[in-house]
Amino acid sequence: MEHEAIPGMELKDRLRDEWTALAPEWIEAVTVGGDRNIHRVGLLDAWMLEAVGEVSGLTVIDLGCGEGRFSRMLAEQGARVTGLDLCEPLIDYARKLRLKDEEYVLGHMEDLASIGSDSFDLAVSYITLVDVPDLKRATEEAFRVLRPGGRFVVCNLQSMVTAGNGWIKHNQVKLHYKLDDYFDESTRQIANIDLTNFHRTLSMYLNTFLAAGFAMEGLREPRPTAAQVAQYPELGDELRVPTFIIYLLQKPPK
Questions:
Q1: 153 and 248 in contact (C-beta within 8 Å)?
Q2: Residue 73, helix vs strand vs coil
Q3: Is the pLDDT of residue 5 over 50?
Q4: Gyration radius from the chain CA atoms
Q5: What's the rounded Cα separation, in Å, for the pair 222 and 246?
Q6: CA 188 → CA 35, 132, 155, 164, distances in Å?
Q7: Domain range 2-164+184-250, CATH class
Q8: In the 3-class helix/strand/coil scheme, how is 78-104 assigned residue by residue?
Q9: What phi, psi does 154 have (nearest 5°)?
Q10: What is the pTM of this model?
Q11: Rounded to whole angstroms, how far apart are CA atoms 254 and 148?
């Protein structure tokens, strides 16, 4: 990743344009397979399904649902799912692959004005907060649309990863992971796919969740099993450096 200021175009328009341009390649990676989907299929799906728990009969909002893959997984488990995303091609694709009665809505997770308060039992963010400019507003909106006692399950990139560094190598051998510019909370441009992400410290995430009113139920750092590494050797690095984190949050009951 490279540091980059974002000039000119309204930031949300810039993000929407980036995802619209990426959408065909993203859909192909999800449907055909590819490096970008290995961590989800090989590692994170199992952790996320365990984190959300029993969802049959629950109303669920998938914030930043993309092409709807995880929304469909939740629908298969018996949830009544609303998926929301700012990228129209991804929402169109999600609608085409609708399994049951999922609803897919074009919109931004920072602004859920069309959704009433206390509407959902569960909110999910599956590696989407890293794409959101206004973390505070997105978190407050997630809190608002949840019913008292509702849960917010957030899977995100670790803050040490979004800082934008990487492996230090010697003769292509990965020696250790570099961490620098951690406290510089700014945009990061992912050069190889022309996509803007937002780096925030761990304390920023935790304090934002708590300030919105959420209670912390737990924190998990996904790591692969031996069987998963055998099937997906690329996951071996996850036993050395944790790339992902899952926050388990709850809106307090009344």
A1: yes
A2: helix
A3: no
A4: 18
A5: 8
A6: 20, 12, 19, 7
A7: alpha beta
A8: CCEEEEEECCHHHHHHHHHCCCCCCEE
A9: -115, 115
A10: 0.92
A11: 6
Cα separation, 124 vs 128, whole angstroms: 9
The dihedral built from the CA positions of residue 79, 82, 87 and 89, taken in this order, carries a sign that is: positive
pLDDT at 8: 37
Cα 89 to Cα 37, 46, 53, 111, 229, distances in angstroms: 18, 27, 30, 19, 33
As given in the structure block, the two tokens for residue 32 are: 């055909």
Q: Is the pLDDT of residue 112 over 50?
A: yes
* Phi, psi of 211, rounded to the nearest 5 degrees: -65, -30
Name the token pair of 114.
């069309």
Question: What does the CA dihedral 216, 218, 224, 228 come to, rounded to 10 degrees?
Answer: -90
Nearest to 58 by CA among 82, 79, 76: 79
